[in-house]
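TASK: fixed-backbone design
INPUT:
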């Protein structure tokens, strides 16, 4: 027994020793090489890549909005990153910022992101951190962040230093939250002002866009926040319509649409790029190998990662019809050079995983994509220290210095378009100022905006200057004219399973003749549909179906109302057993309303039949019950306000944004009537335009004294505007886009090539209303003494162009000095004028300053017939001016 006991004790000791040895072996085991920060990034990337499963590689290529509420079990393989939400809003964009529940303050968001990083570092197999991302077009699009003027307004400052300051402030608010990638800025060239997303851009010119992009992006990348310029490469097509197919040749792309993207990759170090939804030369940009591999990665040497726009990867299947299904679309995109699939929902992943699971995607393409993503994560230091001090987030988001910067940017962005009789600035001693219009008390921030902090309306800004007692306010008219509206579900009923239910019974057929048994039967709460991309139901073809709705309509009051249909042709409507509308012919999109006498509370039988044989269907059952035609009274109230004031300021605006392209550029609704009525009072009339693109004004421009383009001025825009209105700041914003006289001139831009003959219409000229680079001041400037550092240079030399600018007025002000060139004789046709330099200077009254602008060989270069970039010998016309049309000095530079 004693012997056995000794054996047991020895065995126990050996076992304990083994455990200790094993334990020691684990605790002293070295971390894998990829966790060693002293190793070169590429070695770390390769080591980690070698350890990853196919699933883990897939998830590094998948980005979504969300957080741990998705479920840790679903995230065990890791993920590229999350878009974290905190009540962001997106005024003017159809693609709303994805909101997965508020995380409250900036500090709350920082804590949430820290929690996410901790999970992925400590609880997943490989411990790969995420890249939290968000939108930051003109301020981080989340609660608590400062909102600056919209991007087009920042471009209108023509001040790269200011834009850099704004970007630096946004970077601070972004990085302190733990966000390490922004899906901004927009570098698309806005050559057609009908496009609803012009507001998001830096305008129509590649040089101006490039300089703004470099200033904005550099600040983020220098601080370790990845930028994602978008949408690569063009996002607007024929008619100014978003995401329309593009068939531009390589010359046009290289001359106009590529330069800004290429510059920010090569000069500012942008580490990501987002593809556009549309197709380029027949291939979706998201799966375009020529664009993503040949051009971007191989020719330009881009070593960052390419992400899709939200949901764009599957677009090859459901929109462009170049892929049979999502798996094939995924295969095409990844092998063409897409690195990250941006989806709006975690549950979408099986659609894309299928291509990986079945071995459809070349593993070399997968590894290349993952390598690019991992490289970025290592470069950002996320493996070593992904955490932030959450208190710093609250400190810097909405910081008072940022708010002051927002005010400064607002005043510097505003463009004075007209100022007869020196109506502006308004004297603060004026007894009364009438403020009229929707945008007086409403602060619209523009697309891709956060909610902002303590929004300062135009009313409040003016009141801060002269006091509320000196303001007469009238709300004016609505921005859009509402003549009818969809009939609400409360006014519709039908029978289901013997019971009365809300809505109409819809019978859907997989043919266009309402024949046979319905394929789908359902209750539609109301008839208001936009089946523009898909069909009413997965069992129906999107372009070959018909519907019969039946039930009853009940009015809430007695009266004769107009009732009918707004939608695609191919419909008829029966009301109270009678055929009310017969529009069975397919032709267009129509609105047909007919009068019908309703009694309050009485129910009337309704039957609507509709067929669609071409797709892209929209269909609404509408009436004008409850619509008040009170705009005439609103205009009368505005006139009274003007009559009781010394000067009238009318605010007028537009609706635009993503999925809101504009066929017509005039002010919508009854705003033009409002302006004309106020002007007819004889009181000095100022019109302030709120929007992000061009507005036509032929019907009223001659009636008013002054016009100010205020853009979307940001959270402190009211104070910035008041500074301009009363002369505490002198306006010096300049247009980054061309304003046409009429939308029939579109697309209209300053740097067109020679037409070959004329450029006028029979009943309109080819000249703009306001040209690119245009803007007035409260003072005036004189240009003189144009000189070149050398009049004759070789093709590899840089020349300094100098001139003298003098403020001839009585007050200080800024001037934007613009340098344009024209190649007098070239082997290929060149633009009639090209912006190649600018600077914004401040001059006191009577002060003169010598301005120097640099012309490099790159600025003088062109693409020859074989698309080789060269500088050709010959004469170049060098023009200095106050706009593309207002040239003050010019000379000839000779290149040997």
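OUTPUT:
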């Amino acid at each position: 027994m004693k012997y056995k006991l000794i054996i047991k004790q020895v065995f126990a000791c050996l076992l304990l020793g083994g455990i200790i040895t094993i334990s020691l072996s684990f605790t002293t085991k070295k971390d894998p090489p990829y966790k060693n920060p002293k190793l070169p990034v590429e070695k770390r990337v390769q080591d980690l890549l070698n350890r990853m499963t196919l699933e883990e590689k897939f998830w590094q290529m998948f980005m979504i909005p969300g957080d741990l509420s998705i479920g840790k079990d679903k995230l065990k393989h890791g993920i590229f990153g999350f878009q974290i939400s905190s009540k962001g809003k997106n005024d003017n964009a159809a693609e709303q910022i994805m909101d997965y529940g508020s995380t409250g303050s900036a500090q709350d968001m920082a804590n949430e992101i820290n929690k996410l990083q901790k999970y992925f570092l400590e609880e997943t197999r490989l411990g790969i951190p995420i890249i939290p991302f968000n939108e930051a077009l003109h301020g981080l699009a989340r609660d608590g962040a400062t909102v600056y003027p919209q991007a087009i307004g920042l471009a209108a400052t023509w001040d790269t230093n200011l834009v850099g300051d704004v970007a630096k402030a946004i970077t601070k608010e972004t990085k302190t939250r733990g966000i390490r990638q922004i899906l901004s800025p927009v570098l698309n060239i806005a050559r057609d002002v009908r496009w609803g997303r012009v507001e998001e851009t830096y305008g129509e010119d590649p040089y101006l866009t490039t300089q703004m992009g470099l200033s904005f992006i550099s600040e983020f990348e220098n601080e370790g926040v990845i930028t994602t310029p978008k949408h690569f490469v063009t996002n607007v097509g024929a008619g100014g319509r978003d995401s329309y197919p593009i068939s531009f040749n390589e010359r046009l792309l290289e001359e106009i649409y590529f330069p800004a993207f290429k510059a920010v990759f090569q000069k500012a170090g942008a580490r990501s790029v987002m593809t556009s939804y549309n197709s380029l030369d027949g291939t979706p940009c998201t799966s375009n190998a020529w664009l993503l591999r040949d051009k971007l990665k191989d020719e330009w040497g881009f070593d960052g990662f390419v992400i899709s726009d939200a949901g764009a990867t599957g677009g090859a299947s459901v929109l462009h019809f170049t892929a049979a299904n999502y798996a094939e679309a995924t295969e095409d995109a990844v092998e063409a050079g897409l690195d990250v699939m941006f989806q709006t929902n975690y549950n979408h992943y099986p659609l894309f995983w299928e291509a990986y699971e079945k071995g459809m995607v070349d593993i070399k393409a997968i590894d290349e994509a993952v390598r690019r993503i991992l490289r970025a994560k290592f470069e950002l230091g996320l493996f070593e220290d992904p955490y932030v001090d959450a208190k710093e987030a609250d400190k810097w988001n909405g910081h008072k210095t940022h708010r002051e910067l927002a005010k400064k940017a607002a005043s510097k962005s505003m463009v004075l378009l007209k100022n007869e009789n020196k109506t502006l600035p308004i004297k603060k001693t004026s007894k009364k100022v009438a403020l009229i219009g929707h945008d007086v008390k409403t602060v619209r921030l523009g697309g891709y905006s956060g909610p902002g902090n303590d929004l300062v309306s135009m009313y409040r800004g003016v009141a801060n200057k002269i006091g509320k007692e000196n303001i007469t306010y009238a709300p004016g008219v609505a921005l859009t004219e509402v003549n009818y509206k969809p009939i609400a579900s409360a006014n519709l009923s039908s029978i289901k399973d013997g019971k009365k239910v809300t809505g109409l019974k819809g019978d859907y057929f997989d043919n266009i003749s309402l024949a046979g048994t319905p394929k789908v039967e359902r209750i539609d709460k109301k008839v208001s549909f936009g089946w523009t991309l898909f069909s009413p139901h997965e069992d129906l073809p999107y372009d070959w179906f018909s519907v019969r709705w039946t039930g009853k309509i009940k009015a809430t009051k007695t009266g004769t109302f107009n009732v009918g249909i707004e939608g695609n042709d191919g419909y008829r409507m029966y009301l109270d057993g009678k055929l009310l509308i017969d529009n069975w012919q397919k032709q267009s999109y129509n609105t047909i309303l007919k009068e019908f006498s309703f009694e309050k509370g009485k129910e009337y039988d309704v039957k609507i039949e509709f067929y669609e044989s071409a797709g892209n269907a929209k269909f609404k059952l509408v009436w004008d019950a409850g619509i008040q035609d009170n705009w005439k009274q609103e205009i009368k109230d505005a006139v009274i306000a003007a009559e009781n004031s010394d000067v009238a300021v009318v605010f007028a605006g537009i609706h635009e944004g993503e999925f809101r392209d504009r066929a017509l550029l005039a002010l919508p609704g009854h705003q033009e009537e409002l302006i004309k009525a106020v002007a007819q009072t004889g009181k000095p009339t100022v019109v302030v335009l709120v929007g992000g693109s061009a507005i036509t004004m032929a019907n009223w421009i001659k009636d008013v004294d002054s016009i100010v383009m205020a853009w979307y001025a940001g959270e402190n825009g009211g104070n910035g505007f008041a500074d301009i209105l009363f002369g505490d700041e002198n306006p010096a914003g300049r247009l980054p886009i061309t304003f046409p006289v009429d939308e029939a001139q579109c697309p209209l831009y300053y740097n067109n090539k020679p037409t070959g003959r004329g450029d006028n219409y029979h009943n309109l000229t080819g000249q703009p209303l306001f040209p690119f680079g245009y803007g007035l001041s409260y003072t005036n400037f004189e240009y003189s003494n144009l000189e070149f550092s050398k009049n004759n240079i070789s093709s590899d030399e840089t020349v300094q162009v100098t001139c003298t600018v003098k403020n001839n007025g009585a007050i200080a002000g800024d001037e934007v000095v613009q340098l344009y060139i024209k190649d007098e004789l070239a082997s290929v046709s060149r633009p009639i004028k090209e912006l190649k330099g600018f600077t914004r200077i401040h001059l006191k009254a009577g002060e003169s300053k010598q301005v120097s602008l640099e012309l490099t060989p790159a600025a003088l270069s062109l693409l020859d017939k074989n698309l080789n970039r060269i500088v050709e010998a010959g004469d170049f016309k060098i023009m200095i001016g106050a706009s593309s049309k207002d040239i003050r000095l010019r000379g000839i530079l000779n290149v040997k």
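COMMENT: The chain has 21 helices and 41 strands.
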